[in-house]
Amino acid sequence: xxxxxxxxxxxxxxxxxxxxxxxxxxxxxxxxxxxxxxxxxxxxxxxxxxxxxxxxxxxxxxxxxxxxxxxxxxxxxxxxxxxxxxxxxxxxxxxxxxxxxxxxxxxxxxxxxxxxxxxxxxxxxxxxxxxxxxxxxxxxxxxxxxxxxxxxxxxxxxxxxxxxxxxxxxxxxxxxxxxxxxxxxxxxxxxxxxxxxxxxxxxxxxxxxxxxxxxxxxxxxxxxxxxxxxxxxxxxxxxxxxxxxxxxxxxxxxxxxxxxxxxxxxxxxxxxxxxxxxxxxxxxxxxxxxxxxxxxxxxxxxxxxxxxxxxxxxxxxxxxxxxxxxxxxxxxxxxxxxxxxxxxxxxxxxxxxxxxxxxxxxxxxxxxxxxxxxxxxxxxxxxxxxxxxxxxxxxxxxxxxxxxxxxxxxxxxxxxxxxxxxxxxxxxxxxxxxxxxxxxxxxxxxxxxxxxxxxxxxxxxxxxxxxxxxxxxxxxxxxxxxxxxxxxxxxxx
Length: 493
Ligand code: BGP
Known about the structure:
8-stranded parallel beta barrel, alpha/beta, 3-stranded antiparallel beta sheet, binds 6-O-phosphono-beta-D-galactopyranose, 14 helices
């Protein structure tokens, strides 16, 4: 009863937000290395120098096209929090031991492409980078922790942006596949679970974070998404040839949108909003572009450059499972008077009077998770994997060093209860659960450290200070008990 045997309890991270060591071990520059810190109200900036030498810094979420010859680089006077992350690069043994103590069955991490191919198109892979992940996977396996690997999580070799504007160019597919072939072959006996692109649907909104593309016009983003679709499909086909046991998934940011009223116009609006997520999983799970998207492209004059083999590749390279992040839900309305915006994970909506929100304004909605699980399972009948969920909050260290994060425990317990109902009452096939930022790390949207998600506290602060020491929060022992009881015991005592 409840969670199935073998359910993958664990935690999730990404290389750029955690590893640090940005210039160590032969690593090249990634698109994320030129992103500054920000706050909830001031955006993270991408820094670059124009061909005439003018230095510029533009918000990451709205970065537009830049002239040819522009160099993305770090500028003096800015803080780049991901350069040091939480120094997992040097602490991974200690951190994995703590994950093991919590009883993790799996650990979601991403490989930094630039540790393997520093420029993205190098002839030979960087052995030091390969060895780093070999050692890390061995450390996980030593404790029986299954690595779950995101191949590309919000960072791409910067050299490829300079060369081709990254994923805007079709030649990226071959670079990505060479990288995939290298890691698939190298780690084929150590890693079984893969995801091709983190939150691929964010490409509908922003070019820099998911694709290292300067420019956020719809035509450029649609073409970049097409290249990632083809790359993902080819990676799935290749991965299965290298090891037929591989499980290769897509990964989407799932954002549930409710209609504000039962006015059919609002309901239609909510349905249209759901296309923000569905389009990407439709292509990656069904193997073809859905009709509503083709019509939208036609209406908006978007023309995709497509090769004759693409159609067949998309069909052949559908994914084995659907991984998704779920933090919140939102509300949409067609009434122009409704304008009370809620905060959000890239895409936001109106405030929902029935829900509470996090300190960053993300609306907390456990039942929405059950609804999302049902929507996705119903639509595709594929196994689901919740690879991100959690509460970003400011944690307070008491005088005795303890951190009493009951708010986090409550958030996670409420979501786990709904997951159980989705499995138990609705028959959803759920493979696992990896709460985001199982150890505190740099926030993707704001670059803050104070927006913490972890069971493990890291002594690192927004101004760059801190000694990187680790300590257990109250939620550490709680989650340990949850895993030990396979999700049965959610009590907080
Ligand atoms: C997802 C990303 C993660 C992550 C998380 C939490 O969108 O895949 O990389 O950071 O959101 O967001 P944030 O860090 O902005 O709080």
